[in-house]
From TrEMBL:
Its main location: membrane. Pfam families: UPF0182 (PF03699). It comes from the Bacteria. This is UPF0182 protein A6770_23535. Residues 476-496 are annotated as: Disordered. GO terms for cellular component: extracellular region; plasma membrane. It comes from Nostoc minutum NIES-26. It is a multi-pass membrane protein.
Length: 984
């Protein structure tokens, strides 16, 4: 523990977020101490008191029988020697609830099984948290220990025989050895402390709530109550229910098992002091039951009972009043039990009434919690469901759209006219020149064959981005030319935005030959990746291979090879060493006697010594011991390669790095590399001034599962905002968090908690800000919700008559859902090209296009969503229909079949639906790859427009065949498509 805390203090100090770590540690430690300490004091104190008040053993059966007959005053003195004879007579004449074996055995067995169930429930949660990685630190509140959860948990255990055997074994062990209750109490204290301490992300926001300025309709509470306060109250309930329920059950078992009651076959009844003790414990338990029912009222806004998410007609008219009544009655019972504890009267004439009252309360629990709501649902709601649920459906629609920011979508009608001309293509030349012909998968396969240089390098990913390039280096072609490009091009001084695929060349130590995988190589020599590739998305070189703006390792001061000097001016390269990356994971030591492998140069290797900001000095002996213990690597102590300035670099995986700093955020699955000079004027202290220009950009989200009435869907969240952009230096490892959505109340709360963690987006260098893009994961979640929640009329929503779906496409030879894709294009009614993210929709169980959603990423328009809805009375071809037309064309399908012979196969790439002016253009690349040692090449481009489909070698040829059919090149294949009948 000391080595872990010490090492992590050094690490957080290195990245500049020590305050974040210390507040987190202090909060978790305080929660653990308070919860575990209070629990252990309460449980052990009550069990110690129960040990004093329980009957002595052994208790002779004759004495028990005489006592039950009521004439053994000596036995009363024997059982309670501390009290006067008068008190003895009064106390033991009030002995309560004597039980014979036929009632005693089932009772103690049920209580023992309940202890076992509690042990299983809380133990399972604690074990999960104990083994949970940093990425799971932002956890939902566990299932609360309520009757319905107990029953469900019991059924799961019964279905697994070894679970059931273990449960029964625990119960029998408690009956034989009641002393186990003390050990279980200690385990409970440790487990509850661990569970509550893991939820520090729920506790801290409770004290720093930010108003949403929006209330939910059922209780009129501001939404911040549900997002910030309710989770903390649920955690309190989780703790107190376990604490008081176990305390009551454990003390009851202690009393019931005293006096050898099981072996004697009779329990003589609870004494006066035992009754007072149990009354106090029962009062505490009933207060928690009241709290549980009170919180259950608010949790109705997450109900899934009705036809829509959130409180339904039954919940509001039946369940809510029942919970309120049960809460009030539980409070009344609790105060009555406390009164009995404090003002005990030995001769209490209404003792039987108490038993009947508790029985009535349990009956009301069953009636109000289960029977009444189900009766209302089946008898009142279901026969008139739309009428009864209309208002509640409207609430679900409104709040779901708010929670996923769907209200901000600008919906427009888009009626494609099909009047696209060659002049329109020339007018939209930038869109045409940025049509993506290279998908990420074939480019990565090609990179791995041509650009990995050595086996220990790997390209884990390729990312779409846009760069502003000088036009004298931009080739004016969109597919493989038949002749080499003309080099005598007049250079110009203008620039042009180009869509590119950028991929990082990272170090993959697992690919180092097994014989060379030594400790020195792993931790001292193979320390970093080197370089990256940049490929235009729409051009290819001879043979159908991708062209590269940036490629190779040049082996000199230029570091990487560029296609021209202008590219080197447009895309900063510097010294492109990657110490922190997407697949980088192993810790390394730099500044040692062993030189680090920098990059290969011919048959030799170039070596380098790391001089970046990252790393923690471990030159002194005590630090070496500290990190050797933390990393469990004792060779760090024994090696002689370390110098006074030696550093250790760990948590080098970018996702692991940022999750360690801000585990309360949810991070996008796709981080992307950016090559930019982030400190051009050398005045920004957050960025280095040397020649390291590679940065990782990651989108981070604030999420919640506590937004009222908002549908959680399959992701388990019902609120999300893309509130943070994270930048990580690939060389120095520095991490900067920028607030991208200052209107988000959740990020405002975390900013108040950690004031030094976040910076405004305006503080991000402009060179990096120009590479911000709308994140795919966020877009997918929003687009998934929009398929249902674009329907704002309750009746249409109830009938699901306008449900949408994401269409399928053929990729390779298999059907799969269309993935959102980036384009540089001009949207309809927008007079300029921009970088957008686009996804088409089709109606449920239909294949014609019904709408498409676009997310804007540039400048002041960043984050704006546009929904273009197509007329329902017209047939607009969807991706599946275009794929079908392509594959059923006899000449095109014959050509694909010829390629799919033994040893090679054709891959149909992403089908892009591209809006141009008031028309839609469909483009699909076709690749050819060998079955072994795959090196995909782009061999054809398919273009579809209106009722024409063309397959040609280049995009220009295909477009000419569409818009200039009289000059169609010979290789092109043109097939008319008859207009299909619109779906009814």
């Amino acid at each position: 523990m000391i080595s872990r805390v010490g090492a992590e203090i050094f690490w957080f100090q290195e990245v500049g977020y020590l305050q974040v770590f210390l507040l987190r540690v202090v909060t978790r430690g305080a929660l653990w101490i308070v919860v575990a300490g209070t629990t252990v004091v309460y449980l052990l104190g009550n069990l110690a008191l129960a040990q004093q008040l329980k009957y002595p053993k052994p208790l002779k059966i004759e004495q028990v029988e005489r006592e039950q007959a009521g004439f053994s005053r000596e036995l009363k003195n024997f059982l309670s020697p501390k009290y006067s004879k008068r008190d003895d007579i009064r106390n033991y004449s009030q002995r309560f609830l004597s039980l014979k074996l036929r009632w005693l055995l089932p009772l103690v067995l049920v209580l023992s099984l309940l202890v076992g169930l509690m042990l299983f429930h809380y133990g399972e949660i604690a074990l999960f948290y104990w083994h949970s990685p940093v990425s799971k630190a932002n956890l939902p509140v566990p299932d609360l220990f309520r009757p319905e959860i107990i029953w469900q948990f019991f059924k799961e255990i019964v279905s697994q025989i070894w679970y059931l055997g273990l449960l029964v074994g625990i119960a029998i062990a408690i009956l034989i050895y009641p002393q186990l209750l003390l050990a279980i109490a200690v385990l409970f204290s440790v487990g509850l402390g661990l569970i509550l301490s893991q939820h520090w992300t729920k506790v801290l926001p409770y004290f720093y709530p930010t108003t949403f300025n929006n209330s939910e309709p059922l209780f009129g509470q501001d939404i911040n109550f549900y997002v910030f306060s309710l989770p903390a109250w649920e955690l309190l309930e989780l703790w107190l229910m376990g604490l008081f329920l176990y305390g009551f059950v454990a003390v009851s078992l202690t009393y019931l098992l005293s006096a050898d009651s099981l072996s004697q076959g009779i329990f003589p009844g609870f004494s006066t002091q035992q009754q007072r003790h149990l009354s106090g414990l029962g009062g505490c338990l009933m207060l928690v039951v009241a709290l549980s029912y009170w919180l259950s009222r608010y949790e109705l806004v997450y109900s899934s009972r009705g036809v829509s998410y959130g409180a339904s007609y039954t919940d509001v008219t039946a369940q809510l009043p029942a919970y309120t009544v049960l809460c009030v009655l539980a409070v009344a019972i609790a105060f009555y039990l406390f009164w009995r504890t404090l003002f005990w009267r030995p001769k209490f004439q209404y003792r039987q009434s108490v038993i009947y009252g508790l029985g009535v309360y349990l009956a009301l629990v069953v009636m109000g919690g289960f029977i009444l709501p189900n009766a209302v649902q089946y008898l009142i709601v279901e026969p008139n469901e739309l009428q009864r649920e209309r208002a509640y459906i409207q609430r679900t629609i409104a709040l779901t759209r708010q929670a996923f920011d769907l209200e901000a979508i600008d919906a427009r009608i888009f009626n494609p006219q099909g009047t696209l001309t060659e002049a329109d293509l020339q007018k939209n030349e930038l869109t045409i020149r940025n049509i993506r012909l290279w998908d990420e998968r074939p480019l990565l396969e090609t990179n791995r064959q041509l650009q990995q240089i050595r086996p220990y390098y790997r390209f884990p990913d390729a990312d779409v981005d846009r760069y502003t390039l000088e036009t004298d280096v931009v080739e004016r072609r969109s597919a493989a030319p038949q002749k080499p490009p003309v080099s005598e091009q007049e250079p110009t001084n203008t620039t042009e935005r180009r869509q590119v695929l950028i991929a990082a060349r990272e170090l993959d130590y697992s690919a180092v030959p097994q014989q060379a995988q030594t400790w020195v190589n792993r931790h001292l020599i193979y320390t970093h990746g080197y370089g990256f590739t940049v490929s235009p998305v729409n051009t290819v070189g001879p043979g159908g291979l991708p062209e590269y703006f940036v490629k190779d390792i040049s082996g000199n001061s230029s570091a990487l090879t560029t296609s021209s000097e202008a590219i080197r001016k447009s895309i900063p390269i510097g010294q492109p060493r990657i110490y922190y990356g997407e697949i980088t994971n192993a810790y390394v030591m730099t500044g040692t006697r062993a030189k680090e492998l920098d990059y290969p140069s011919g048959s030799d290797n170039i070596y380098n010594t790391y001089d970046g900001r990252g790393g923690i000095k471990i030159g002194s002996l005590w630090r070496r011991w500290l990190f050797a213990m933390y990393l469990k690597d004792w060779q760090m102590v024994l090696t002689r390669d370390f110098l006074p300035d030696t550093k250790v670099l760990f948590w080098r995986n970018v996702k692991q790095r940022i999750q360690a700093i801000a585990p309360f955020l949810k991070f996008d699955s796709d981080l992307y590399l950016v090559a930019a000079n982030a400190n051009l004027d050398k005045t920004n202290p957050d960025f280095s001034t040397n020649n390291n220009y590679l940065y990782w950009m990651i989108d981070a989200y604030t999420t919640s599962d506590r937004y009222p009435y908002s549908d959680t869907g399959s992701e388990g969240i019902n609120y999300i905002r893309n509130s943070v952009k994270v930048v990580v230096d690939a060389y120095h490892g520095t991490v900067n968090f920028y607030i991208a959505d200052s209107s988000d109340p959740i990020i405002a709360t975390w900013s108040a908690i950690f004031p030094k963690l976040f910076k405004p987006l305006s503080a991000m260098p402009i060179s990096l800000r120009s590479h911000i893009r709308y994140p795919v994961d966020f877009f997918k979640i929003q687009s998934e919700r929009l398929m249902t929640y674009h329907m704002t009329d309750p009746q249409v929503f109830y009938n699901r008559e306008d449900q949408w779906q994401i269409p399928n496409e053929i990729y390779g030879s298999e059907a799969r859902p269309v993935e959102p894709y980036y384009l540089i294009t001009s949207l309809p009614t927008v007079p300029f090209e921009e970088f957008i993210l686009l996804l088409p929709y089709t109606p449920k169980q239909r294949t014609n296009l019904i709408a498409w959603l676009a997310a804007r990423s540039d400048s002041v328009n960043y984050g704006k969503l546009l929904l273009y809805i197509f007329p329902k009375q017209r047939l607009i071809y969807g991706p599946e229909q275009i794929e079908a037309l392509i594959n059923q064309d006899p000449v095109i399908s014959q050509q694909i079949s010829l390629w799919n012979r033994q040893g090679s196969r054709a891959i149909q790439g992403n089908l892009l639906v591209i809006p141009i002016e008031q028309s839609l253009l469909y483009v699909e690349p076709i690749y050819l790859e060998a079955s072994q040692n795959s090196l995909p090449t782009l061999v054809r481009v398919v273009v579809a427009y209106k009722n024409r489909i063309v397959m040609a070698q280049t995009l220009e040829q295909a477009l000419q065949a569409i818009f200039k059919p009289e000059v169609t090149p010979a290789p092109a294949i043109i097939r008319p498509v008859e207009q299909a009948v619109p779906p009814e």
